[in-house]
């Protein structure tokens, strides 16, 4: 394989086009084509754009040649899966698996589609999003809207088999509708989606921590409830690794109890963490419902990653999520114990070339500190 980092001219073109995209997004696209619409409208337009452009091969080739930075220092193997780089799109944006072709061609290492549920789900009443640019954040209140895991997983399988290099993960959750019943009903909901996902993607994520459902988070309320869920999921044969998407706001003692449960089950990784629910010190209107993405998650998620890695680093791989806008922030999560890093908000606030900014910057930081591969830096700051 020929890497962009090995070619002086390709590397120079990649850097120049990335800088040009960054300038264009900041000064032209964001103010005049994105932020001039409500975030709900802008989100729908972005999905429509991905649906159209994925069918234009010359455009995909152009994006790939201009933006996809490749470098051997970024390659890594996690949970038995090979990644061209450790950066992924987190679940929550591409609910119905409309974006993988574009994400693959701009250079993501992986994408997590969904979260998707056993039944089609309309989600919560709109608006789903509120922008908080002063905090590099979005208030998110989608409520797991999706077309159903049967259709989403079928799309994900096709995208995975056709991807150039990007890995595909599907995130499954419990349907958020008026048919929700007791824990047993919720367990069967997860099991339906897990049966559908088995063997059809590179990874599967079990989202037990969505803060925007009308039944709350019953499977993180007690260790017993979580154990019941994964006892049922363990009975479903699946070749791909399983991650669990964990909450951000929970006392460490309770958090450890949940991790101790997961350690006894067929779970290989943890996605840390979901949306920030603590609004302390933030000037946010009281009638805005939902959890916070982006900036308010940055430090809290990195510190939680550090705690988990210190005590469970030999048991679980960690995919760090929350407020990754700069290569330095991604690097901090890696040095704190993340083998993989996911983001969404910086894509919205910085633009599609942000994946290239992060990859180029991380490669420079790794070489500066003498690491031959990104995996060598995982957890080095944890004592």
Can you put this structure into words, describing what you see?
This protein is of the alpha/beta class and 383 residues long. It has a single domain (70-377), classed as Aldolase class I (TIM Barrel, Alpha-Beta Barrel), CATH 3.20.20. It has twelve helices and 13 strands. The chain has helices at 8-34, 39-53, 57-67, 100-106, 149-162, 183-197, 223-233, 252-262, 298-312, 327-335, 345-350, 354-368, and strands at residues 76-78, 81-83, 87-89, 110-116, 129-132, 137-140, 167-172, 203-207, 242-246, 269-272, 291-292, 317-321, 340-343. Strands 3-4-7-8-9-10-12-13 form an eight-stranded parallel beta barrel, surrounded by six helices. Helix 7 (223-233) links the parallel strand 8 and strand 9 (242-246). Helix 6 packs parallel to helix 7 (223-233) and helix 10 crosses helix 12 (354-368). The model has no long low-confidence stretch (mean pLDDT 96).
């Amino acid at each position: 394989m020929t890497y962009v980092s090995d070619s002086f001219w390709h590397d120079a073109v990649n850097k120049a086009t990335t800088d040009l995209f960054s300038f264009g997004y900041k000064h032209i696209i964001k103010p005049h084509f994105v932020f001039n619409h409500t975030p709900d409208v802008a989100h729908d337009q972005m999905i429509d754009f991905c649906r159209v452009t994925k069918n234009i091969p010359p455009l995909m080739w152009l994006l790939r040649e201009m933006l996809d930075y490749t470098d051997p220092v970024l390659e890594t193997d996690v949970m038995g899966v090979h990644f061209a780089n450790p950066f992924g799109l987190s679940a929550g944006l591409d609910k119905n698996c409309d974006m993988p072709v574009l994400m693959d061609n701009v250079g993501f290492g992986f994408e997590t589609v969904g979260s998707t549920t056993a039944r089609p789900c309309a989600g919560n009443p709109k608006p789903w999003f509120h922008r908080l640019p002063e905090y590099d954040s979005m208030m998110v209140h989608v409520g797991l809207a999706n077309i159903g895991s049967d259709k989403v997983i079928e799309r994900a399988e096709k995208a995975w088999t056709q991807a150039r290099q990007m890995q595909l993960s599907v995130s499954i959750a419990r349907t958020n509708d008026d048919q929700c019943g007791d824990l047993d009903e919720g367990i069967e909901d997860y099991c339906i989606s897990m049966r559908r996902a088995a063997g059809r993607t590179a990874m599967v994520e079990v989202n037990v921590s969505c803060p925007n459902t009308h039944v709350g988070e019953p499977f993180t309320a007690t260790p017993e409830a979580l154990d019941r869920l994964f006892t049922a999921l363990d009975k479903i044969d699946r070749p791909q690794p399983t991650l669990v998407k964990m909450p951000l706001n929970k006392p460490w003692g309770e958090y450890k109890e949940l991790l101790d449960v997961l350690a006894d089950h067929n779970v290989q990784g943890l996605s840390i963490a979901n949306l920030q629910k603590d609004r302390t010190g933030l000037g946010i209107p009281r009638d805005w419902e939902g959890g916070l993405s982006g900036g308010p998650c940055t430090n809290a998620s990195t510190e939680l990653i550090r705690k988990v890695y210190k005590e469970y680093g030999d048991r679980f791989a960690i995919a760090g999520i929350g407020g990754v806008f700069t290569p330095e922030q991604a690097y901090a999560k890696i040095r704190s114990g993340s083998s993989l890093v996911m983001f969404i908000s910086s894509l919205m606030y910085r633009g599609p070339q942000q994946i290239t900014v992060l990859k180029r910057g991380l490669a420079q930081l790794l070489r500066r500190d003498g690491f031959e591969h990104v995996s060598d830096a995982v957890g080095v700051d944890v004592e």
